[in-house]
Amino acid sequence: AQSVAQPEDQVNVAEGNPLTVKCTYSVSGNPYLFWYVQYPNRGLQFLLKYITGDNLVKGSYGFEAEFNKSQTSFHLKKPSALVSDSALYFCAVSGTDSNYQLIWGAGTKLIIKP
Amino acid sequence: EPEVTQTPSHQVTQMGQEVILRCVPISNHLYFYWYRQILGQKVEFLVSFYNNEISEKSEIFDDQFSVERPDGSNFTLKIRSTKLEDSAMYFCASSESRDNTGELFFGEGSRLTVL
């Protein structure tokens, strides 16, 4: 069965420090991996995706994520956090051997403190 | 920049009433989706729609739910007889492709409150 795990409900980071939001997955076939962000009272916005190729993918707002096949992980990272990065972050995955439905993680609340 | 729009932004209804949530997907997109997010919880897939028919649906999408594209631009979600547990934020999304290599574009959501 396909699944996505975001093991941390909340991550607290001081402004200017690097941040990591974790995601691990289980899928059939090769994974398609996505990160979306949800600001308060807003819809979800696409940040970045991994489909194939370079394991390090760069996305919007200075975020990047690294695909690690052996650890089945796709952690979201940013070298220097901003207060405005505070939001809810969702990891999502689908597999090439599965249907086209995206499976979503439970979300991680990222709080950046000044 | 093209965007997905949803109306209403917030609807309050009595249990047992019918509700229709409306979405206007991005004009050149061919695949449409409804997702639900109960307050503070994970995003849940409801249904996907392509070529005027349902492509996939989840266990949540039971006989109380229906979708249609009545006029080539709007994409609606109908809940026939609302229950308290239907209270949630409902997100519409659209995409160019079905193979999930592309991103989904989400609307701002419609908050449904069932009393």
Report on this model:
With about 110 residues, chain A is an all-beta fold. Chain A has no helices and 12 strands. Chain A has strands at about 5, 10-15, 20, 25, 30-40, 45-50, 55-60, 65-70, 75-80, 85-95, 105, 110-114. In chain A, strand 7 (about 55-60) and strand 8 (about 65-70) form a beta hairpin. The model of chain A has no long low-confidence stretch (mean pLDDT about 90). Chain B is about 0% helix and about 50% strand. In chain B, the strands form 2 sheets. In chain B, strands 2, 4, 5, 6, 9, 10 and 11 form a 7-stranded mixed β-sheet that branches. In chain B, strands 1-3-8-7 form a 4-stranded antiparallel β-sheet, with no helix packed on it. The chains are: A mainly beta (about 110), B mainly beta (about 120). The interface between A and B is medium-sized, with 22 and 23 residues.
Q: Which helices and strands, and how do they pair?
A:
The complex is a heterodimer of chains A (114) and B (115).
Chain A: E1 3-5, E2 10-14, E3 19-21, E4 24-26, E5 31-38, E6 44-50, E7 56-58, E8 64-68, E9 73-78, E10 87-95, E11 103-104, E12 108-113
Parallel strand pairs in A: 2-12
Antiparallel strand pairs in A: 1-4, 3-9, 5-6, 5-10, 7-8, 8-9, 10-11, 10-12
Chain B: E1 5-7, E2 10-13, E3 19-24, E4 31-37, E5 43-50, E6 53-57, E7 65-68, E8 75-79, E9 88-95, E10 105-106, E11 110-114
Parallel strand pairs in B: 2-11
Antiparallel strand pairs in B: 1-3, 3-8, 4-5, 4-9, 5-6, 7-8, 9-10, 9-11
Order of helices and strands of chain B: EEEEEEEEEEE
- Give the N-terminus to C-terminus distance of chain B in angstroms: 37 Å
Indicate the overall shape of chain B: globular
Question: Which two chains touch over the largest interface?
Answer: A-B, 22 and 23 residues
Radius of gyration based on Cα positions of chain B? 13 Å
Overall radius of gyration of chain A: 14 Å
The number of helical elements of chain B comes to: 0
- Distance, first to last CA of chain A: 41 Å
